[in-house]
Amino acid sequence: MVGRPPVRALDELSLQVARGEVVGVAGPNGAGKSTLIAVLLGYLHPTSGAVQLDGVAPRRYIERHGVGYLSELIGINPRWRTDRVLERYALLAGLSDADVVRRVDELMELLGLDEHRTKPVKALSKGNLQRLGVAQALLGDPDLIILDEPTHGFDPMWTLRFRRVIADLRRPGRTMLIASHDLAELSALTDRVVILDHGRVVRTVDTAAKAPVLRDYRLTVAAGASEVVAVFPDARAMGDATFEMRQIELDALNVGLAEFLRRGGHIVSVGPSESLLEYHFRDAVEELNP
Amino acid sequence: MSAVMEMAEVEAAPRPTARLGRYAVWQLYDYGRGVGGATVVLSGLAITMLTMTSLWGLAHTPIAQGATSALLGVLGFLGPIFACSGLVSEDRSKGYYRFLLAKPVSPVRFYAQAFLLRGAAFLGITAAVWAACALLLGTGSFIGTMAYAALCYLTVGGVTLLNSTLGRHAWLATLLLGGAAGIVTGFTRTTSMWRPLWLALHAVLPPFHLTSVLSQALMRGGDVLNTAGVIAWFAGYGLLAVAAALTVIRGREWPL
User: Fold this and answer.
1) How far is the C-alpha of A120 from the C-alpha of A127, rounded, in Å?
2) Minimal CB count within 10 Å: which of A62, B11, B140, B234?
3) A254 and A194 inside one domain
4) On the CB side of B11, how many CA atoms lie within 13 Å of its CA?
5) How many structural domains does chain A have?
6) Of the candidates A155, A186, A206, which is a domain's last residue?
7) Could you tell me if B22 lies within 8 Å of chain A, comparing CB atoms?
């Protein structure tokens, strides 16, 4: 037989998400994020093990309650009209006729689609199509929301607005799972982030946790660049008067900065080289792929 | 692997499920805007061409009635293939299922309803084509024509629906199966050592070669009672195909 060899997309994966929790899923390309979501939705069946949503099999849960799902690839018939798309999905979400009109109007406005409502889907830009995808996911006010790369195609303004939309969706009893490459987004939106690699959970990061004691910091100076190395002997010049201090404690950094200022140095900016989540992501992936 | 997610409060009010009855309007609309509309246009063209031939002078004679019955026979076979070819495969291959099936909807009910609605719409088209034929050139019995179209929809449409759940180009698979059934039927009349194999294949392959027997019996005043076995075999095969299609829809994975 000729065909592609089978791929173990998820392996020994164990994940429990509590009611009301907002969980992020991060990982390099091919880590298994989309496969995990397809399994959670019952679109793919695990070859071994079990998946349960609220104590029942995924399809059984979804056929009873529905899920607010945004896929990475937006699959909507390109000939359908934008507002009619939401009307159709609203009927499938079980909304009454009055609620269909109200909810479609609300979401059109919330996601800035009003001016595009009579356009066919094929005439929408990537960002507008993505927003339409988000809108259809929120139609039925679901208790479970699963978003796969939700800000893919958004401009910076809509990325920020989207974060507010998601923040407003938080409520007791509503569970959200967000898969994204954007670690800053996951840091801002989630309670914890599960890092996947090669189909396994390699680390779980509490996004509200304190930073590790030793971190890398980046310092940019306006004057006194030569003093930086004198104060921080291990500092590495990055160019453009920027230096990186690797694995340094916060207290030692502050003492050093005070000394630098005393010597007449001027600081433009100073901060961690990477966010907490970026640190864990890099560390976890490097640990598995040295 | 294991994954557990806790969602709705147990004591929360039950959520509304999909309003499939209301959604039927959209399913009919999609058929009408797509292959249903094409079926109407092609049928209209065929009637127009028939009336432009010498048949016009032979209107309401057995010759004209034979020609219109042949047209309705072809419509009965090809219409269900048009109607059901992309019913599931288009949603699968283009990823439309992702949002549809994330709603509180049973895929089996969703596609079963679409199949039935398209069948009803197809019968409506058949009735309109019959009326046009009857008015312009004369044709066979209305009830017989509708019975033939319904049987064809059940069996040809059912097999096409099953093919649509299994892969793309269901129309081609249905035509190939029909062609194979015709060839195998010819071989069953031989006396070669392979005859048992041909007979086994004949029993498994769709009985599309029987459509001419059905059209003769139902539309052209043939002996319906003597073809009761053929009708039962044809309908039974269709019911099994539809049941198999719905079973596949319930159990089969959907592509990433």
Assistant:
1) 15
2) B11
3) no
4) 0
5) 2
6) A206
7) yes
CB contact under 8 A, B3 and A63: no
Domain stop point among A190, A206, A222: A206
How far apart are the C-alpha atoms of A78 and A258, rounded to whole Å? Answer: 60
> What digits encode the pLDDT tens for the residues B148-207?
999 999 999 999 999 999 999 999 999 999 999 999 988 888 888 888 899 999 889 999
Residues A251 and A189 in one domain: no
- Residue B60 is classified by DSSP as T
Residue A224: both structure tokens together: 């006194």
Backbone angles phi, psi at A273, to 5 degrees: -65, -30
Segment 50-79 of chain A within 8 Å of chain B by CB: 50-55, 61-69, 71, 73, 75-77, 79
Considering just the CA atoms, what is the radius of gyration of chain B in Å?
21
Q: Is residue A3 part of a domain?
A: no
CB contact under 8 A, A177 and B1: no
pLDDT digits (tens, 9 = 90+) for B69-118: 999 999 999 999 999 999 999 999 999 999 999 999 999 999 999 999 99
Structural domain span for residue A44: 22-206
Chain A contact for B12 (CB, 8 A cutoff): yes
ipTM: 0.87
What tokens appear for A253 in the block?
A: 């950094």
